[in-house]
Amino acid sequence: MVVVRPRQWSPHEDSVWTSLSAVFSAIERLGKFGQATAMP
């Protein structure tokens, strides 16, 4: 998942955005894992 963000963000916003991206990719990975191991 590629996210384009504005250039002039403060370090605080930057870290918040990084955390959000990490959370989203973790959810995405968990979703794929859940599908792969789902019981019929």
Strand share of the residues?
Answer: under 5%
Principal-axes geometry comes out as: rod-shaped
Mean pLDDT: 79
SS class = mainly alpha
- In total, the number of strands is 0
Unreliable stretches: none
Percent range of helical residues: 55-70%
What distance separates the N and C termini? 29 Å
| Largest sheet, strands/sense/barrel | none
Number of helices: 1
* Cα-atom radius of gyration: 14 Å
SSE series: H
Give the helices and strands, then pairings:
Elements: H1 11-36
Task: Describe the 3D structure.
The chain is mainly alpha-helical and 40 residues long. It is built from 1 helix and no strands. The radius of gyration is 14 Å and the shape is rod-shaped. The protein starts with 10 loop residues before the first helix and ends with a helix.
What would a concise description of this structure say?
It contains 1 helix and no strands. It is mainly alpha-helical and 40 residues long.
Features:
mainly alpha; 1 helix
